[in-house]
Specification:
- The chain is α+β, with helices and mostly antiparallel strands.
- The protein has a single domain, classed as Sulfate adenylyltransferase (Roll).
- The chain is about 35% helix and about 25% strand.
- Strand 3 and strand 4 form a beta hairpin.
Length: about 170
């Protein structure tokens, strides 16, 4: 089975803006704020769908990014309190999350507690390393650098803001 890549094109602003408006109507304390990011997790549609569902259910509460990929793509680190819209692989908005904390470390120094917060697979560090090495290796190859275990990564913990976990 070949995985279809998550499109690199911008998400449809009409769709995510309508979702954001619904969020603000249901949560008036956030009025006047804008999402800092509108994105899908992972690097292919099936993975984006799986991870969005884990976030929606309140299981996934963390994510990790390659600092080198962030640098090459011009991505900024989210600040605590930043709100983002999580998308499915087809670009459909699923939920709003709020960044709780970010910190940098290396791939090989991510610990079991953070791996469990990512909520993927069996929640173990071994599973986290296996799956993240695969994703980071594909990403590194696409962007023209090599994955190594001492790759600098940014870890982010977040909380599901809306809708409430199913």
């Amino acid at each position: 089975m070949s995985a279809e890549r998550v499109p690199s094109a911008e998400p449809d602003p009409t769709v995510w803006r309508a979702f954001w408006t619904s969020f603000l109507e249901a949560n008036p304390t956030y009025r006047g704020r804008e999402p800092v990011d509108v994105f899908a997790f992972g690097d292919h549609r099936a993975l984006a769908d799986e991870l969005a569902e884990l976030v929606r259910r309140g299981v996934k509460r963390g994510t990790t990014a390659s600092v080198e990929a962030m640098r090459r793509e011009g991505a900024a680190s989210p600040e605590p309190g930043a709100l983002s819209i999580v998308l499915r692989g087809d670009g459909t908005p699923v939920c709003v999350i709020e960044t709780v904390e970010t910190f940098r470390t290396t791939f090989d120094r991510v610990d079991a507690a953070f791996a469990a917060d990512e909520g993927e697979g069996d929640g173990s560090l071994a599973y986290w390393r296996q799956e993240h090495e695969a994703v980071f290796s594909r990403e590194a190859e696409a962007l023209g650098y090599a994955f190594t275990p001492d790759l600098e990564v940014e870890c982010e913990r977040f909380r599901l803001v809306w809708p409430a976990p199913a």
